[in-house]
Amino acid sequence: MVTMDLSRTDYREVIEAPGTIKAVNSVTIMPPRDSYGGITVDWVKPEGSQVEPGDTICIMKSDESMQMLDEQVRNLETLKADYTKLEADNALNQAMLDARVKENLAGMAINQLDSVQMRFAPPIKKRLMALELEKAHVQERKLQKKFLSEKAIDETEIRQLKSRIMQAENMVQMMQGKTKELVILAPSSGILSASEQTGRIMVSFGPADEPIEIGGYPKPGTAMIFSEVPLMAIPDLTEMQIKAEVPEVDYKRIEKGQKVTIMVDAVKGLQTTGTVKMKPMAPKIKYISEQVQYKYYEIIVGVDSCHTRMPPGLSARCNILINEVKDTVVVPTIAIFERDSMKVVYVADGENFFSAKVETGLTNSSQTIITKGLVGKETIALAEPPQKYIKKPKKTTHE
């Protein structure tokens, strides 16, 4: 018979949950917004690299944006050339009108000099000379009106062309800004990390979207970013938390504020403590295969200490304390049997055993608290003894 010597001990019921260390606060790095087409990733700095403000961490390119920029630059150059031509044409027209005005003024001056002869000229000639002078005045007024009209038209055309040039310059500046955004610089110092929600890409040689793997995938020129979720992050290493996964049956027993023991094997067996901070309601689905899927819940565990020794991305084992009773009698659950609607434990008495009626408290699949019937100094059987070894129970002092 396999037996066990009892002693009073502490009852602890824990749920084991694997998790991943995450930073509470991070500086997220967003991909540029591209309204004209996909962005191709050329190079990404490897995850885990130490960066300083202004360091280049990602280089991208957009053929559509570069083509749009070239078109806008050519359009701006054409408009500036048109403006220079328009100014030259207007200056030439104004010069010609000005020459005609001066020519007319000279004719009027000559006619005015000939007015001395009008006193001695015959009446018909006087009439002709007066008409010539009147004609010169009419021509002067016409030229003056034409000069002003041409000037107003020229100024309007110049203003319109200037407005188009300003619009083209703004478009060129905007496209140049988009081109500069394709080179992503580190906004702060820290260790480069994959974001909680990595940007999604469409692979040129495959139909499905896949997340970016910093430093490895995507290969240069093979991936295009379309969404506006974070591309990568620089975590704040002064405060860490753990995202742990638990099945539905365990999730129902976990409550906010429960104590947690955390083990990080990758950091020389680091062990620290924490508490359950958050318990999201929505489940998540993990696909094992096309036919098999696994539903789990994600809980957030706050870390009490050792934040700087726990780099984000490492795995951690969390033991969530569900129940705890100090200084009590705990027996293996398999050592409790039901006889005549009573719970009994077989206590060793020499080579024989007698059944002791017990009352139980908190229990789980492996351990059960005995609230009455044992004192914690007995030797008990872990399996039901053969009938020939079972004797009548001993009478206790209060019977």
Structure notes:
- The chain is of the alpha+beta class.
- Among the domains are: 26-62 and 182-234, no CATH class; 66-178; 236-259 and 266-313, no CATH class.
- The chain is 29% helix and 36% strand.
- The chain is built from three helices and 26 strands.
- The protein has helices at residues 63-113, 123-181, 248-251; strands at 3-5, 9-23, 26-29, 39-44, 50-51, 56-61, 183-185, 190-191, 193-194, 200-203, 209-211, 223-225, 232-235, 240-246, 259-264, 270-278, 284-287, 293-303, 315-332, 337-339, 342-349, 352-357, 359-363, 367-372, 379-381, 390-391.
- It has a six-stranded antiparallel β-barrel with strand order 2-14-18-16-15-19.
- Helix 1 packs antiparallel against helix 2 (123-181).
- The longest helix has 59 residues, at 123-181.
